[in-house]
Design goal:
There is one protein chain. With 625 residues, the protein is of the alpha+beta class. It folds into 3 domains: 223 residues, Heat Shock Protein 90; 144 residues, Ribosomal Protein S5, domain 2, CATH 3.30.230.80; 226 residues, Up-down Bundle (Four Helix Bundle (Hemerythrin (Met), subunit A)), CATH 1.20.120. 38% of the residues lie in helices and 18% in strands. The strands form 5 sheets. It has a 9-stranded mixed β-sheet with strand order 1-6-5-4-7-3-2-8-9, covered by helices on one side. Strands 10-11-14-12-13 form a 5-stranded mixed β-sheet, sandwiched between helices. Strands 18-17-20-19 form a 4-stranded mixed β-sheet. Strand 10 and strand 11 form a beta hairpin. It is elongated.
Length: 625
Amino acid sequence: MTTTDTAAVSQPFQAEVSELLHLMVHSVYSETDIFLRELISNASDACDKLRYQAIAAPELIGENDAPNIRVIPDKKANTLTVADTGIGMERQELIDNLGTIARSGTKAFVAKLAEAKDGAGLIGQFGVGFYSAFMVAQRIIVTSRRAGSREVWSWSSSGGAGFEVAPADEQDAKRVARGTEIVLHLKEDAKKYLETHEIERIVGAYSDNIQFPIVLVADEGEPRQINSASALWQRAKSELTPEDYTKAYQSIAHAFDEPAMTLHYRAEGRYSYAVLLFAPSTKPFDLFEPARKGKVKLYVRRVFITDDADLLPAYLRFVRGVVDSEDLPLNISREMLQNNPQLVQIRKAVATRVVGELETLAEKDAENFNKIWDAFGAVIKEGIYEDFERREKLLALSRFFSTTGEKRTLKQYVAELKPNQTEIYFLVGDSIERLKSNPRLEAASARGIEVLLLTDPVDAFWTSARLEFEGKPLQSLSQGDLNFDLIPLLEENKDKGEPAADEAQTIAIIKSSLGERVTDVKASTRLTTSASCLVAGSHGPDRELERLLSQQNRGMRSKPILEINLRHPLVAAIANKGSDKTIADDLSLLLLEQAQILDGELPEDPAAFAARLNRLVLQGLALSQ
């Protein structure tokens, strides 16, 4: 060993260090609590590396010296110590690992994070995350002994001028038998991190599932383990019981119900990661809050990173659980995670797997699937217009209430189409009761055609996409032209007689009376008993979608098309009273206004409507006397 190898060395930081430290404190980490997560995760990595090397050299660990992590607050000395019995570092490793920022510069720093594709290069290294400790410490002293070595070295820095590496003094060398000890001399505003409850809170939030024991060694009381040290998602499914999964769900999701679906698997291949996800059985109160996001937690090698990584698309935001990657770098900001190519692939694969699991559940466990659908069906349907790739699967998963009085799948609907029926018919509204009495159902009901009754607000949006299922277009009964001519009427609805009014004459009178209140007036193929209804044109939004958008001040409502039933006596009366413009105008406006009321709308002028109705009723009474 040369003199240089054993002498103390002071090394100045390069000019870029201050910039990078500023980046660490102000950009990469948004909360100072993160420093403890970083130090514990680094300690865990060191323990991981020791355990791996001990496979070939068991003497590195010994029989009764399993790797562990200790957190030691000392209020008298104003220090917080994080120590591990992991692999430890030699002198040059201290310089290399803790001087990474100083040696690499900004470009190499970013490149190092990008290059760490398998994560192996991060095991046992402090690298970038170590420097987050300078958010709370005015001085840091690191003492380390490499496993199997007799030498103990000390690294120290105040963060500004540089760092110093020297042989550890006798007392420190005796204390550090193996691994690394980091002593933080805390700043005045960081003394809260000496409180045991604060340490337990942070460990519980970020490091509870670190697989090595984290022991709190405080002045008061005996040393005690403060983490569960059990990453359940990393265990084999065969080792776990339904009770284990329920407890894990309730802990991860902070829930009290039982999961309706559990998805636990490990992905191997280009990227390796473990997944443990749950679908709740009850709906949270804030499910439709605009700011609500999914809360699937991202871990990297059992270290909690964030629950804000958007690991699932918005329409699966009710899913709770964990994704634990073996490949992502630990020392990475939330902002960088959003654009990480590995995470993009993980998101895509996990979303596909969740949808696949819902399909399996729907097929094999209808009871639990129905719990999920009843609670979250309206959210899942958001994916029909958001997720083109999985649209067909989501349509197949969806359940719809229909005129049969049951919840139905599109597959069931298509299997029972009427002869010559080529479309899947639906009607969108705000309640089942109102839709059941909607006049637009009349022609379909007269032929025994099943109609889907859609009442979730999202239904007005996804149905606007002009979709097909198994080659059958979905067609709204409140939009465009319909042709039921090839579908025969039920026997009891045949022989309704000829139209009571001349089509061209009646339409001309009504158009003259209504003027620009409507886009057009047409003879209806939808109506059999009601006098009139309002529909939207073939192009543009459906009337229900227009209604919702106008309520949110996101667009003006277009003028509707008035459809009339030429067999209805009121329509026939217009043709008969055509020479009396006052009566013809009143009757025409009554057709429009009663159609508006049936749609759940108020007439444009309620007072004029009431006066007009009174006038017509009094005229009818006079004629009957």
